[in-house]
Amino acid sequence: MVFTHDVLVLGRGIAGAVFAEEALRRGLRVHVFDRPRPGQASAAAAGVVNPLVLRRDVPTWRAAELVPLAAAFYTRMQEHLGVPLWHPLDLVKVFPTSREAEHWARAMQDPASAPFMASTPCPGLDAAPLKIPHGYGTVRGAAWLDVGRLLDTQRAKALADGWLTETVVDPASVLPIAGGLRIGDRCAPWLVRCEGAFAALPGLVPVKGETLLVRIPGLHLEQLVHRGVFLLPLGEDRYRVGATFAWNDVWSGPTAQGRDELLRRLRLLTGSDVEVLDHAAGVRPTTRDRRPLLGAVAPHEAVLNGLGARGVSLAPWCAGHLLDHLFGGRALDPEVALRNNLD
Ligand SMILES: Cc1cc2nc3c(=O)[nH]c(=O)nc-3n(C[C@H](O)[C@H](O)[C@H](O)COP(=O)(O)OP(=O)(O)OC[C@H]3O[C@@H](n4cnc5c(N)ncnc54)[C@H](O)[C@@H]3O)c2cc1C
Fold it and tell me: pTM of the full predicted structure?
């Protein structure tokens, strides 16, 4: 069988975008099908990379491996696309109570958490109009990825280079052929589904999130601050505030309830005037154990999904790992392999 491509990709949120970038870098012939639609998680994502679970002061899953790998991947991608995407920055956790401050101090003694934690003063923060009665700690290794710019810039390049078709792929249009699959006049030995929460995939739990874009004149923060919500500085007094988590009615879009909840939590951090500029909602493709879902789901079909609330840091590792599996014969890590994997 002569294939037009090595791999077809369905979906171009952060999962599909990163998978396509890595597959192309490895010299594979790639074609992506995608039609962004309301609820797309990546369109709403704040883009924060945070190596620490802030509720418990412990590292996120494989943070020591995944975060440096993500930094290297997105730095290379921004060079390739010619636009700034990856912005390392300090993440400050504001302690809501003195007990949390004590917990932080104890966690700093743990060799697993310590590399991601510091208690150094931030002079700009101390001078800012913020409510910080119990102090704060700093998370090391945090960053912000400009997901919107990554998707927009890659889209323009992909359309110009002819490897993206913007269409909804109907399940009936994915046709089996000898040794592979066909969509329209493109065929390959593998279709990789990066459909996010739109997928009907066992084990996937859709979780809605909302964020606000706000203006807070006079705050002048340079750090990413967390106290119940993230407050991400974007310049010119603008900040991204997020995010909510909701398990019901996940496709309902931005709601007054979500906006009020974000503003309520923001007021715990600052009494400054807040002007809401924009309001977004998306549906995270999560799993119960917070591990991604990788592997074959049918002959010649695999998934890269389950990126949950940490798509930015997980996507580069997942893309490389799935490519090593599909094209290099490497076994999937049992922690991420689908249980109904056909291998
Ligand atoms: C409010 C909010 C804030 C978040 N903040 C962060 C954050 O700060 N940091 C972080 O790391 N993560 C964050 N996340 C999580 C992150 O957004 C997700 O992990 C990630 O975006 C999932 O990407 P994905 O590509 O799997 O899914 P999606 O972004 O949903 O992309 C799936 C794509 O597939 C397309 N598609 C599906 N089926 C078809 C079809 N049949 N035909 C054509 N196209 C199809 C969809 O239209 C869509 O474009 C946040 C999420 C939300 C909702």
Answer: 0.96
